[in-house]
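Standup notes
- DV: blocked on the single-chain target, sequence here:
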Amino acid sequence: MNQSLSTQVLIVGAGPTGLTLACDLARRGVGCRIIDRTPAHFAGSRGKGLQPRTLEVLDDLGVLDAVMAAGAPYPPMRAYDGATVLGDHVMFERRDPTPDVPYPNILLLGQWRAEELLRARLAEHGVRVELATELIGFEQDRDGVTATLARAGGAERVRAAYLIGADGGRSFVRRALGVGFEGETLEAHRALVGDVRADALDRDRWHVWPKASGGPVALCPLPGTDRFQIMVPLLGEEAVELTVEAVQRLFEARTGRSDVRLRDASWLSLYRPNVRMADRYRVGRVFLAGDAAHVHPATGGQGLNTGIQDAYNLGWKLGQVLAGAPEALLDTYEEERLPVARAVLGLTAKLHHQAADAKPGALRRGAETQQLDITYRGSSLARDERGGGDGAAARVLPGDRAPDAPCQDREGAPVRLFDVFRGPHFTLLAFGAAHADTVARVNARYGQAVRARAVVPPGEPAAQRSLVDAGGHVRAGYDVDGGALVLVRPDGHIGWLAAPGTLGQLDDYLRPLVAGALSPAGEA
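- DV (later): unblocked, structure below
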């Protein structure tokens, strides 16, 4: 057995969750390895919708431009009865960007392509996925985790500070921990899914047969390819071979269409909807994320996106603790993400049953699936210190997603808040003339860990790092009137809000989050 050099974080599973976490850690300078037991990268479109909040995460990670170029808006759905066109409708109403939401629409992109782009970004940080490498055991103690990996040439032992199980619904990590995975498998709603070429169908529509026996049959065009994702419900205990010939026979039997020829399947799978979640996300130095922690029906496009949000929440906390912050910060991962998964599971289960029952409007989606309203209000990291009861009536509270807003630098060049947030740091927004000195002191005290910007109205003197709120969108977006301090976490959620706010209060909030944060008594 080979004993390898240690690493700070070992990530098991190279799907969207694991790749997002690896990208976030790598940009922080955290040493990580990411392994996957499969011999080749996933080639299918199991998940295909990137929600608006996920697009914001990808913006922060520096991969959004590539994702937007590779993806496309969801096409209209065309319903058929056999070969007869019943009509067209849309699943998602297109929305225009607003000052606070720059990416308001879901993006269609096959999972294999999204993973490919995340791997390319990760490679820019010098990290590559280790394929055909399987975790077969691990032990942990108070100082770290010793993992045993099986790969060509024998076994390898790896010492890591933390181990992350992002290894899917059948997670080896979760089972080895003995963590419960409560819920149900909806065997009555099995389906065949895959990616195929389809002749005689145009690619500007999502083709659906809602009246097909056994449930709706669908072919959705995948952007950047000549393939469609196919989904065909299975009846009872019906068995089907995972071959394109068998899928062709099944498609014809369900839809009555023999003119549509399916061929060259790149991926076929039997899909069983699950509604399950882990009862814990952390056991010592081992964490669960993505499908290893929660699995969802495909309806609503939530599973892949929720996993990415898990990684985004966990990544900055691991980075802070590995840099010297108190380890108790890691307890807030489960505190914040487990309730979100519970709520999302309830939503996806509801949408799944509506679709299965073919209820009117069952395939239409609204704001509830965009994940922009996910909040950590009530978390131990959400602190409101506004005097006079101002916080009770505010529209934006600590724990909420931090809105974007267009503004200007002091030379008048356009800049967005998301440009300011981008990176692994905290961002302090300081409102009001009384905080001009606060900005300089925070930047001197915390360096790259916390970047402070004064938000000033047009016509007032602006320092080098000031943001000119030319259109009033920053104050409006954060519901701020008068002097205030707003601290945005590295994952784009508001952590602390104070009015008028003091540097001592900021130090007190940051002490459990940033290595070397000062107490009020330590202020010069």
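- Follow-up: The domain at 72-108+187-272 is CATH 3.30.9.10 (D-Amino Acid Oxidase; Chain A, domain 2).
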